[in-house]
Amino acid sequence: MSANKAARIGEEVWKTRIDKVNAELVTLTYGSIVAQLCKDYEGDYIEVNKQLEKMGYNIGLRLIEDFLAKTNMGKCINFKETAETISKIGFKVFLNITPTVTNWTTDGKQFSLTFEENPLADFVELPDDGRAQNELWYSNLLCGVLRGSLEMVQMQVDAHFVSDVLRGNEVTEMRVTLIRTIDDELPPGED
Amino acid sequence: MTIYSFYIFDRHCECIYIKQWHQQDKFRPTSSAGPSGTDSPASLTGDGKRSSAGSTLLRSNDTNPSRPGGRLSVQDDAKLIFGVVFSLRNMVRKLSGPEDSFISYRTGAYKLHYYETPTNLKFVLLTDVKMNNLRVVLHQIYVNLYVEFVVKNPLSPVEHHGGEGVAVELFEMGLDGFIRTIQD
Amino acid sequence: MSRQETPFVPFSPNPSLQQGTPTSTAPLKHSLTASSTSNLRYSSSRKSIYDRHLNRSQRSELSKASFAFLFGEMVQYAQKRVSGIQDLEKKLVLNFTVVLIATGVTQFDIPQGWDIVLNLHGYTIGQRLLELLLWRDGRSAKRETRILGILQFITTTLYRSVFNKPADGLEKSRDNEDEYMLIDNDPMVSSYISVPKEMSQLNCAAFVAGIIEAVLDGCLFPSRVTAHSVPTDQYPGKTVFLIKFDESVLEREAVL
């Protein structure tokens, strides 16, 4: 599926089949969650990253079903198509953004998602305690979401942020790597 | 035009939901030992007393062990159906490529309709032989009932370890209503 | 989360800004642009959040499912945290109960653990929403001093900006002077959740109750807001928010 076709599908689903809600509510809710985590783990930002990823993973397991129900997509043929689907349809349908797919490796197993805007991090500034900017990945939930949802469609991936504007970098970029394709499970007693 | 039963299997080859309707009597009559086939649907989860929340819906089925005469309990039914469906699906894929999947099959006594999502969730419907293809119905159940009431409900688990099934009231009510409109 | 702090929250849209967190690590030296007081790095190509207009995201929308999933995870996390400290809570509640019975008090309301957590989340959000909404009203914003005024503000402006529809009803309780009821026939936050019987005390509308309470506190109407579900045939999700104002508010109202 070409990028254009994916973009068109994404636009169409966004316009017609999605119930919408005020973006600020989502931004504030996410902020409240991150704040709660920072407080619970008393500034251990590595642990907060892990928790965010785990929460994202749980969300991803469910989100994929909602995505399939709304977009009627079948399985993607290869990883390149998966990348286009994620960026043009997936993110569009849930967050109304379309990050760009860049930096493919030659074996086609790794790509980057570059975010021009990130509604989860609107109007956010990391705490000025000297460590947050080095350790906290504010939008780490998204990495977990990708990992969870792709696992449900038989792909084991690793997703992590490599740069974030909240940390003072130029762009927000997430690196996604396909580790392996998961085989169908066989019922017990059959090999 | 009757619908006999409905099953959902998850990606781990487990049966996570079974629902049978009373016309099952004609198809596979219950013995006198089992619960009598009355006019009310013999659903395993509709009876609030039998399934306490979170407990496995399949385990609570022990009121119906293997009946004499070679007829199977509901659990074994489910396993059998899964085996058939799984083998058929694999065979179809081997024959015509990974894009294809089988849609339904028909015997002298019933017709089985099948729908699988890209997340390997399998929906199976058993009806009488005269029914048209109900793949669309299964898709509707997935989109309008399963995703809305089960997936989006944070209190219902995604992975069913140890045989826990789907136990969401809204889903069951919706399913019941939906199937009744189909049958009319 | 301390609610004893002054109701006028310093305007800080940054949700992760913690008041006075002591740090042991030395602040970093860096090369990119920075203000003289903060040590944060900013991207050179983008403006900082203080340069962006606050109204940018006023009309922007996200999918309802995103909110639903986030909210669901919040509920799950609250559940895990609460069950972790449930034993401790039980002990505390038990002791508390004994004391109350001993002193002759027989009627009290012990909120369940996760209602508190949801309420607190709602509170954080409510504080910021209040600032945002009042700022957006601009010059025509009126500081509400009467009970009816602030309740109207909540029923219309606040509800409309958050949920795209005004609340469905506002009533004054006949039995108590200090109680008012805000009615929502179909609260958005509860629309996805079907609560199993043994968790019947879980009411996700506690989140919205937190928002309302924060707004009231922020406008100097200290009160307690609780959510009660009153399902009817027509509206199975109907929820009533019971707003109980403090003594001070009633005294002030009587004077005005």
UniProtKB/TrEMBL annotation, chain A:
InterPro entries named in the record: Bet3, NO_sig/Golgi_transp_ligand-bd, TRAPP_component
UniProt keyword terms in alphabetical order: Endoplasmic reticulum, ER-Golgi transport, Golgi apparatus, Transport
Region forming the signal peptide: none
Compartments, as annotated in UniProt: Endoplasmic reticulum; Golgi apparatus, cis-Golgi network
Cellular compartments per GO CC: endoplasmic reticulum; Golgi apparatus; TRAPP complex
Keyword Endoplasmic reticulum recorded: yes
Pfam families the record matches: TRAPP
Superkingdom assignment: Eukaryota
Main location: endoplasmic reticulum
Any GO BP: macroautophagy
Family under the similarity heading: Belongs to the TRAPP small subunits family. BET3 subfamily.
Name this protein carries in UniProt: Trafficking protein particle complex subunit BET3
Organism listed in the record: Morchella conica CCBAS932
UniProtKB/TrEMBL annotation, chain B:
GO cellular component, one term: TRAPP complex
Biased composition (Polar residues): 29-43, 52-66
GO term, biological process aspect, one: endoplasmic reticulum to Golgi vesicle-mediated transport
Family annotation (InterPro entries): Longin-like_dom_sf, TRAPPC
Oligomer status and interactors: Part of the multisubunit transport protein particle (TRAPP) complex.
Superkingdom, taxonomy of origin: Eukaryota
Keyword set includes Endoplasmic reticulum: yes
Protein name: Trafficking protein particle complex subunit
Keywords of this entry: Endoplasmic reticulum, ER-Golgi transport, Golgi apparatus, Transport
UniProt-listed Gene3D superfamilies: 3.30.450.70
UniProtKB/TrEMBL annotation, chain C:
Primary role: Plays a key role in the late stages of endoplasmic reticulum to Golgi traffic.
Subunit and interaction comment: Part of the multisubunit TRAPP (transport protein particle) complex.
GO biological process, one term: endoplasmic reticulum to Golgi vesicle-mediated transport
Family of the protein in this entry: Belongs to the TRAPP small subunits family. BET3 subfamily.
UniProt-annotated stretches for the region Disordered: 1-30
Subcellular location field: Endoplasmic reticulum; Golgi apparatus, cis-Golgi network
Ranges that cross the membrane: none
Polar residues bias locations: 14-26
Signal sequence region: none
Protein name, entry field: Trafficking protein particle complex subunit
Keywords: Endoplasmic reticulum, ER-Golgi transport, Golgi apparatus, Transport
InterPro entries for this protein: NO_sig/Golgi_transp_ligand-bd (IPR024096), TRAPP-I_su5 (IPR016696), TRAPP_component (IPR007194)
Cellular component terms (Gene Ontology): endoplasmic reticulum; TRAPPI protein complex; TRAPPII protein complex; TRAPPIII protein complex
Coiled coil regions, renumbered to chain: none
